[in-house]
Amino acid sequence: MVKPDAGTVTKGATLHALAPGLAVALGAVAVSLLLHAVVPMLPSMTIAVVLGIAAVNLPVTSQWCQGPLRAGLNFAGKHFMRAGIVFLGLKLSLGDIMDLGWISVALIVGVVLLSFAGTFALGKLFKLGGDTPLLIATGFSICGASAIGAMAAVKNTKHEDTVLPVALVTLCGTLAIGVLPLLMHPLGLTNLQFGQWVGAGVHDVGQVVATAQTAGAVALSAAVVVKLTRVVLLAPIVGVAGALERRRHARALALMEAGSPEAAAAPRFPPVIPMFVVGFLLMAALRTTGWMSDGVIEAGALAQDITLGAALFGLGSSVRVRELLNTGLRATVMAMCAWALIAALAFGAVHLMSA
Description:
Helices cover 75% and strands 0% of the residues. With 355 residues, the protein is mainly α. The radius of gyration is 20 Å and the shape is globular.
């Protein structure tokens, strides 16, 4: 699926080495935004991932992706992702979330926690290795690729190990755009309930918007507010993971100092909450104050589209379809099970909200 050492960015990497890959990633974002403008049903972030996957799998462009473009694409996949998470905070207004009422907020939090635990358990049941179960659980339960990037930073996960979780969250979110609207009437959902269901059960913000808008403005508004309530939980869940990771590193350091044969090299302590997640919270706080003009908020939304789009193109350009089919089939089945679990939990929460 990935060539782990192909063009990995080192400390000595220069702007000259990064520029070709970054330029291509930004060009892909422009194409993604243009296609989204022409076909609003297609989220620009999904298009960016697909373009990246196509670029590395087509014979004409594959060698470029693995050669002179690799350093810049890897840089975009890691650092632009973090910048995009900061700008994501500008979408959050805590006042809108509080307007839902404490019962609805509690139900949404319950869906996130249960879907996180259930997806993580499925990952272990399907014997997925490394941090993959944790990354998939984070992405599926909170906010897609952005959440995967945040958790990967806390866990110090290798860039190439984030590729499969991002591919799976993109796959399932894209399927939701086509499948969930077909289930609205058979399940007897009103426009409001459909929007709540989409907001509670679909992974990425762009995918939520694309799915909910098929049922009109009421569904779209409800979906966005419910979805952003899930996004708020990014900080506490990443914070808990960071605290647990620091405890694990502290135990490893104690073993090393005691001369235990189980000890490895001196561990590198991760932050409890990475600085870009702190930036995300600060942006959300600024949005909540109401001090920011509509122009600034729109500029932030555009900056988020550009940075996250470039990051997802970079990650997509690491996905080798042939190797994904050979090594990722078990993970794909697990992701489909997790998708069904989250949809079921969200459906139950919607009916409890309406009770």
